[in-house]
Design brief:
Strand content: 35-45%
Number of helices: 1
Radius of gyration: 16 Å
Largest sheet: 6 strands, mixed
Helix content: under 10%
Strand order of the largest sheet: 1-2-3-5-6-9
Distance between the termini: 13 Å
Length: 136
C-alpha cells in the first residue's frame, strides 16, 4: 500500500490468540480482523483449523501465504473472506480435532474450530489484488 501511495493504514496485533485473529488492519474506514496462515511451496498441508470466534468479528477474513522454503519469499496469496463491508463466509460443518491424542489414544474434537480446505480459498494474483479484497 505504501508503494502505491496509500498510507492510510493501521496495523494492530493481538496479544494472545483468543479472538480467532492475528492482526487487525484498518484502511478506508474498513476494519479487518485477519487470521494468518502459512505453508511452504510444495507442502502437503491442504487444510487449516479456524476458530469460530472469527465469525463474530465484523469483516473477519483468513489470509494463507505460500512461501519459498529457501528464500522465504511469498509466492502466492490465498483468500477466504467476504467483500469489504461483509462478514466472513460460513466455515463449514467439519469440526477440527486435536493433533495429539489423549491417554486413551483418542483425538478429541475442538468444538470451537472448523476445518477449511485450501480449495475453499481464492488464489490471488498479487499483493494489489489482496489489498482490493481487504479494503475494496
Amino acid at each position: 500500500m505504501w508503494q502505491s501511495g496509500a498510507r492510510d493504514i493501521e496495523v494492530l496485533k493481538s496479544e494472545v490468540d483468543r479472538g480467532g485473529y492475528d492482526v487487525v488492519l484498518e484502511s478506508n474506514r474498513v476494519i479487518r480482523h485477519v487470521q494468518l496462515k502459512s505453508s511452504f511451496r510444495g507442502s502437503k498441508v491442504r487444510e487449516v483449523d479456524i476458530s469460530t470466534k472469527l465469525l463474530h468479528k465484523p469483516e473477519g477474513c483468513i489470509l494463507w501465504l505460500e512461501f519459498d522454503r529457501e528464500s522465504l519469499a511469498i509466492e502466492r496469496f490465498y483468500w477466504f473472506g467476504g467483500e469489504a463491508g461483509n462478514g466472513l463466509p460460513d466455515l463449514g460443518a467439519r469440526i477440527s480435532r486435536h493433533s495429539k491424542a489423549n491417554s486413551k489414544g483418542e483425538k478429541n474434537e475442538r468444538l470451537a474450530y472448523r476445518v477449511v480446505a485450501k480449495g475453499d480459498f481464492q488464489v490471488l494474483a498479487d499483493i494489489s489484488e489482496l489489498v482490493g479484497k481487504l479494503f475494496g
